[in-house]
Amino acid sequence: MFGVVPKSIWQKTNPADANNLCTWAMRCLLIEDGNRLILIDNGIGNKQDEKFLGHYHLHGDDSLTKSLNSLGFSEADVTDMFLSHLHFDHCGGGVKRAGDKLQLTFPNATYWSNEDHWHWATQPNAREKASFLKENILPMKESGHLKFILEKEGRSSPFDFMDIFYASGHTDKMMIPKIKYKGYTICFMADLLPSTGHIPLPYVMGYDTRPLITLQEKEAFMNEAADNEYILFLEHDPINECCTVKRTEKGVRLDRTFLLKEIM
Fold it and tell me: Given Cys at both, which of 28, 97, 112, 190 links 47, Cβ 3.0 to 4.6 Å?
């Protein structure tokens, strides 16, 4: 999760257990906009076999269904399923098993990706092949629910309140939504910034296919975030839900952490 950064350094912010594993969240974001209910990413899901799931030691009581139900919603209420990218821990919850068949978890939703990333995911390179699982991805297209967002200068989002930053260091054309809300800009950071422990520039995941490009994208985005006081919504941080960052003599660093509900 921290690439070339030595464990003696990164474990100060993200301590590992006896098996050299760190705890990570799969935090999604739900947005109400009029008669639309938009979900950003959907976690790992539960349709994989015990051997697969056993590699990741899933724990905790949270689930998509439980979280939606706690807010008075069900899977059928979701109108739009926005996918930052198609690695299994971000899109696996979008398809479920019904007996021997696969079906969409959100039967009334449009599933949003982009064409370049879709091609990258459905014709995977050897390094990422284990992260792009066809049972997570192909049912979206086969169901007729898949739509592509067109990348263009300026607004490239199907939603009026959202712009998209495209990042290709982690995987090709990962989408980082920048959401306008009550005068704030809330950025769903996906794998561009997994946790507050990844804020220093060299802290780049070994999973990234093009780490030098990640460095460039991360530096540009974090400087922009510091200058514009963006709220960074952290998908994988097990403790911190949101943070802001600031410029310092050592580069961009953590400013403060808080819950999203504090600004609502």
Answer: 97
